[in-house]
# Entry
Amino acid sequence: MTLLALHDVSKFFGGLRALSAISFEVAAGEIVGIIGANGAGKTTLFSLIAGHERASGGEIRFEGRNLAGMRPHQICRLGVARTFQIVRPFGGLTVEENVATAAMFGAARAASPAAAATRARDLLDLVGLRERATDLAETLTLSGQKRLELARAVATGGRLLLLDEVMAGLTPTEVVAMLDVVRRLHREYRLTILIIEHVMRALMQLAERIIVLHHGEQIAEGTPAAINADPRVHACYFGGAAA
Amino acid sequence: MKATAALLSILVLAFAALPLGAGDYFIGVGLSVLMYVALTQSWTVLSGMTGYVSLGHVVFYGLGGYVAALAWGTVPLAAIIPLAGIAAFALAATIGSPALRVRGPYFVILTFGLAELVKYIVIVIEGWLGKFSRVMFGAPGLDTLYYIMLALAAAATILTLSVRRSRFGQGLRAIRENEEAAETVGVPTVRFKLLAFGLSAIIPGMVGSVMVLRSTYFEPAQLFDPVVSFSIVTMAVVGGSDDVMGPLLGAAGFVVLSELLWANAPQLYMIFLGLLLILFVLFVPEGMSGKLFPARRRGAR
Amino acid sequence: MDAILSGQLLAAALVTGALYALTALGLNLVYGTMRLLNVAHGDLVMIGAYVAFWAFTLLALSPLLSLLGSAALAALLGLALYYGLFRRLLDGGKAAQRLEANSLLLFFGVSVIVQNLAALQFTSTPRGFQYLDEVYHFGNIAVTGNRIAAFLVAIAICLGVMAFLRFHVTGLAIKALIQRRDAAAIVGVNIERVQILTLCLGFATASVAGALVSMTEQISPFMGFPFTIAAFVVIILGGLGNITGGIAAGFLLGLLETYGVALTSSAYRSILVYGVFVLILLVRPQGLLGGRRTVR
# Structure
């Protein structure tokens, strides 16, 4: 079943073309990677899907529904969750409250504070933050905050998870741990994942399919092996002409 | 939770008993304390919970007073007070939508500007009507007004408590911590902010109507005095806006202070207020209630 | 309307506009470089006015000379405020937004203290003095000497500051700081020094405006508020941190106010100013330099 479908999506900021003619589909249960140099339009794409920005053209459909004109919280309720490239925790709330809030308001709509707390604790266990549950979110390290962001996004109960550079800034050991967490979440919560990443090693192991963006355009799509071998991708991204 | 309920019940009983034994002066002081409790608790529903600091809350107080001044004589008391509340809610609902799109410090100065704007509009309207002040005859006595104010203070406190413990309150807190993230996890930010704004306006409107009847005198510049807005903010900062007890501490402290200083040296009182605001903003951002009851910050509030 | 009235109004509008432009200039500089909303700005005008008043009354010193004293005093206050208060905040490290909201409350507290100290010291009775009030005639227009002097001095200072920002190294540093703070640091601008200088300059220009105002208007401890609001209207109208825009907007506000009041009545003056203030904030909610996009 197709969970997410983009058709000819474009985004202009004034005269600046951030995205054009983006078309692809994501089937339920897939993990699809998105790569591209900085400024290629990856985060803009996520902003469009999650509703923070309005597309200038084209259509975005989630489970068949057109998302045009919907506000972020409505899209979240439908089942789309996202993490941010620069983490945005609820700093003054505890780690558990961060996740419980998402459980209360997201698609999962926890029936009571107790149910939300339970869901939160389960997720914190999975990402390894359970011991920090009563600490304020702003006291976590970057790695901790990234995992919190992840737990919070999944807590919303969304079926589609948009991960924006969750590995950025992590040490190699932390990357391995995060990879493991993402796989477990994918499996146990039956998620469909769209993941932006620069850490190639991690992405190649995770994604079944990769889409390559360059200057707002979709220049290639295929398995990790195919993308790796594609000369156009090499030219644009892996060290051909400067981006 | 139980401790809070018990403490608050005792306070209500204490305040209820006051007029039975005390003279008019102390009843008046009690009235002032209750007034500021009602105002500050209502204020925290918006500004404490969402972080959208209102420096113009006197506008709801003044509007409620104006409604009472206009309606007195033609509308019975029991209808005037709710009417004042409704008028304040209506004002909040109207200006809330555009106003709440403004963030951070701009929202703060916007609310101040709005309050002043409404004040001058009322002055002009009164000028058209040929009135420069209004006097109310046959207003209810001090005791009656006192008990009405006690009810309002209790209502405001209950409102604050309910909001804090509700899903709505959790959403407001999320908005305060990071509005964009809150919306991303499903909090309907626009609707929630507007509701908080409206709720924070109702009781101040009713308080204004009571106070106009207390002084039996209405004059726009006096009733829309920015010092009231400023006092509310200072009480909340000093008392602490993150806990139901904060406004109680702040209001009591300040009314006592003003009784001691105001008559002789109003400027000294204001200077002291300014100093306290600065000291607390810099060194004690969690306020007195945050310092006295730190454990209350976590878990059930 | 009569030609006479138009000319007369225009003269009044220009003087008012020049004073607004000068007052707002300081606020713009301080906001642009440090993102601090100084709601006590109008009180600097008040301080400058009182210095000029007492200098004239006690020492028979012309405000055109004592404005130097006003400027010096204000600059000292700026230094004291920086080292006493803002060092602590600017080093805080916490989110910048929290700082902006906090600084507002702090300045508010300062404003209350300053106003009431003045009221305590000087009483609330408005005061005034006569200086340069011979009337000069230009064709059909009659203007008092003090208004001409105020206009000329205000314009001179505005142009002087614009030239400073354009041609002097430190002026360029200020502009750099306004535009991109982090980039300025990287190219070697001494952020702290420039901030201190800007704060003192901003405070000084405001109090000079006060000295000029004292020649033409009555002064009182609480006269600052309207100037603060006017200054805010001007800097938002002209674009936060846009110095030239602010000066133009100052004149615009002067024109709006003078003609608006003439066409209606003085009771509407406050409604006009606060109305414009509220309207701008509502219509331009982003209010940031460079028109940063709002999230929908």
In short: Chain C is about 75% helix and 5% strand. The first strand of chain C starts at residue 135 and ends at 138. The beta strands of chain C are 135-138, 141-144.
